[in-house]
Amino acid sequence: MTTDTTTPEAGPAPTTGTPLLHASGVTMRFGGLTAVRSVDLTVNTGEIVGLIGPNGAGKTTFFNCLTGLYVPTEGTVSYRGKVLPPKPHLVTQAGIARTFQNIRLFANMTVLENVLVGRHTRTKEGLFSALLRGPGFKRAETASRDRAMELLAFIGLESKAEHLARNLPYGDQRKLEIARALASDPGLLLLDEPTAGMNPQETRTTEELVFAIRDMGIAVLVIEHDMRFIFNLCDRVSVLVQGEKLVEGTSEVVQRDDRVIAAYLGEPFEGAPGDEELAEVEAAETATGSTTSTTGTEGER
Ligand SMILES: Nc1ncnc2c1ncn2[C@@H]1O[C@H](COP(=O)(O)OP(=O)(O)O)[C@@H](O)[C@H]1O
Ligand SMILES: [Mg+2]
Question: What is the pTM of this model?
Answer without folding.
Answer: 0.81
